[in-house]
Amino acid sequence: MKHPYCPALELGRVVAGPLASEPGARCGAFLVLSWTTNQRLQVIVQIDFLGWDVVALRPMDRRRSPTLPEIRFVQRLFFEPRESVAVWLPSEELLTNPEPYVVHLWHRTVALGNNGNPVEEGLPPFELACGYRVRVQKKRGPATPERDPVPPSSA
Hints:
five-stranded antiparallel sheet; 2 helices; globular; two-stranded antiparallel ribbon; mainly beta
């Protein structure tokens, strides 16, 4: 992951509101103009999110997904040329995305496994990422007092 970010990128950093961050911080939100499509993009950066760097992007008009040239543009802004990133497309059976026009770029950071050795495999924690949630279907047996307490009656 590139850091510090280029001065032109810092000019687009969000410094007020719920997505605000301090100038020079590694994490934060940015508004950038893609030179590839001349469209404004919102970009949110999280560093070392459970062993992954995550960059989420979406067009400001929010009526379409980012184009491949826009995704590559953002990749060049935030990642070194030698770094590969992954875009994950969830199956409709398992996951839903309440923000259908957001694309997440994932880059593995070095993480240590239980034995202290580096772990560089496995999937990102998609179910915890902004914009995604797991659609869980639990099989339940008969109700039990421990699991399904009866709520007090409102008499």
